[in-house]
Design a protein that fits this description.
The chain has helices at residues 99-103, 109-112, 164-176, 197-220, 233-240, 254-267, 284-287, 290-297, 334-356, 372-386, 415-419, 435-452, 464-471, 475-485; strands spanning 3-9, 13-20, 23-31, 41-50, 55-59, 66-69, 78-83, 93-97, 118-125, 134-136, 141-142, 146-150, 155-157, 184-188, 225-228, 248-251, 275-277, 301-303, 309-314, 318-324, 360-365, 393-398, 404-408, 458-462, 489-493, 502-506. It is α+β, with helices and mostly antiparallel strands. Strands 4, 5, 6, 9, 10 and 15 form a six-stranded antiparallel beta sheet that branches. Strand 19 and strand 20 (318-324) form a beta hairpin. Helix 9 runs parallel beside helix 10 (372-386) and helix 12 (435-452) crosses helix 13 (464-471). The chain is globular and about 95 Å long.
Length: 507
């Protein structure tokens, strides 16, 4: 499989695209005015404790206080630590708890925190909509091959390293390095597969020094204060995304290209030969068709190659994805047509979840299949397609209504929320009242005003589309209304009015 990373850098915005076999799979966007906070470490001050929610709000210097749940307020009793699939996108390790600890409820928040208390925390979820950032006191500091977990002295290995021999080798290498100066544990990341003991030792030494500097600042700086800021997007991509399977990294900014070369020379010298500067006049995202794919990812409907299509609707509570056969009529029978459409849809859904960065609860409405074996194969195809997702996903199974229920961890805004804002005309509904509906609202408003006030005439200000219907198809109804109220009704077209907008002026 051909995999390339494209970096488009401008002074105010950086975009990184992961392209596989010429098809866009992931897009990451970072803007100078709204940099992501996930991974940042702060010294904060507890501003409010909420016993009813088992949580607290912590002031970390942002406009809105951040949220800290009781379960995240103290280090957890680790038995072993494994990496979740989110590692490539600044996500956190997933602790595997001791069975006894799983049953134990977290302590009351009032026993853990008090108002005014200073605490070191890390952001695990960016601000989403009106909600503030989410925090944890279980710190995880990443480097290229390892993640350091202060206060949790255990060694874990990424779940994506499947070889039992390699997993054991990596554990043995870390154990052989002996105790570190600072107490803590390590998680071996996916990119560490096959690396030498010397590289792991250098990575561990780097993390020790980094955490020592963070801890020193935590002891001297006043709260709230930023103690550690994660790398900018281009360097994060080099740390988390660029592995041996990446064939090329192309960057359209010479300054950024030099910065990436310096970074790779220090941490990943073996990758320098794959990094190149793109000097072409044609924008790099246009050359690879990335801009078109981004535009398609903002649309509600996704066309499948067979002729079928997906319909995606993102709401505050959940995202729903509906599968339809569309123009695909198949060649053999209805069941075979449905099965092939659902198989293709499973692949497309997994890609759209990554591309659009959809998270939270996701409901998939595949076309109903009679054959139980077909249902099993479609679910298996979906699970296999999701294995390539760096963000942790979980399929709960098929509900009684035949819907596939799943979740995908949400840590940052979706692509649609990053690039778009609610429509000022429909207020985010996605629909407008029909012209006919607006006409009848105007009739009711005139009738209501005629009964309450003594006026000489009425002046209706509305869009041209509404006035066209009033004076054409609804002219008879309009004449009846004028006769009923005994007052003339005049009209004036307003080019700046939306289809729903109108005013009834009393004169």
């Amino acid at each position: 499989m051909s995999r390339e990373i494209l970096m488009n850098v401008t002074p105010r915005e950086t975009r990184v695209a992961l392209v596989e076999n010429g098809v866009l799979q992931d897009i990451f966007i970072e803007r100078a005015r709204k940099r992501g906070l996930v991974g940042n470490i702060y010294k904060g001050r507890v501003s409010r404790v909420l016993p009813g929610m088992q949580a607290a709000f912590v002031d970390i210097g942002l406009e809105r206080a951040a949220f800290l749940h009781a379960a995240d307020a103290v280090p957890m009793p680790y038995r072993d630590v494994v990496m979740s699939r989110e590692a490539g996108s600044r996500e956190r390790p997933t602790p595997e708890l001791d069975p006894a600890a799983e049953k134990k409820a977290p302590e009351a928040i009032t026993e853990l925190l008090r108002e005014g208390q200073e605490i070191v925390v890390q952001v695990i979820k960016d601000r989403l909509g009106s909600k503030g950032a989410r925090l944890t006191a279980q710190i995880a500091v990443p480097s290229r091959y390892l993640v350091f977990t202060p206060g949790a002295p255990h060694i874990g290995v990424s779940q994506k390293i499947e070889s039992a021999e390699e997993r054991q080798r990596l554990k043995d290498v870390l154990a052989a390095l002996g105790p570190a100066a600072l107490e803590g544990g390590y998680i071996v990341r996916t990119l560490a597969e096959g690396v030498s003991a010397e590289e792991l030792a250098a990575d561990r030494e780097f993390l020790q020094k980094l955490w020592a500097s963070i801890a020193e600042r935590a002891g001297t700086e006043p709260a709230p204060h930023l103690l550690y800021e994660d790398l900018p997007l281009v360097l994060r991509a080099m740390r988390d995304l660029v592995g041996m399977e990446i064939e090329q990294v192309r960057i359209d900014s010479r300054e950024t290209y030099q910065r990436v070369l310096d970074f790779s020379g220090k941490f990943t010298p073996e990758l320098i030969a794959r990094i190149e500067h793109y000097p072409g006049e044609r924008p790099i995202f246009d050359l690879y068709g990335v801009e078109d794919e981004i535009q398609k990812a903002l649309e509600r409907r996704v066309q499948l190659k067979s002729g079928g299509y997906l319909v995606l609707d993102q709401t505050e509570a959940m995202t729903t994805i509906d599968v339809n056969t569309g123009a695909f009529v198949g060649h053999r029978n209805l069941e075979e047509t449905i099965f092939k459409t659902n198989l293709e849809a499973a692949q497309a859904i997994a890609r759209q979840l990554r591309l659009r960065n959809l998270g939270g609860i996701i409901i998939l409405d595949f076309i109903d299949m009679v054959d139980a074996e077909h249902r099993r194969q479609v679910l298996r195809a979906l699970e296999k397609a999701l294995e390539r997702d760096r963000v942790r996903t979980h399929i709960s199974g098929v509900s009684a209504l035949g819907l596939v229920e799943m979740t995908r961890k949400r840590t940052r805004e979706s692509l649609g929320h990053v690039l778009c804002e609610p429509c000022p005309v429909c207020k985010g509904r996605g629909e407008l009242k029909s012209v006919e509906t607006v006409c009848y609202e105007i009739f009711r408003e005139i009738l209501r005003a005629a009964r309450q006030f003594e006026v000489q005439r009425f002046l209706v200000l509305a869009s041209q589309e509404v006035l066209d219907l009033l004076l054409d198809e609804e002219s008879a109804s309009l004449a009846e209304l004028e006769e009923f109220i005994g007052k003339p009704i005049k009209f004036q077209a307003e080019s700046q009015y939306s289809q729903e907008q109108y005013d009834v002026v009393l004169t």
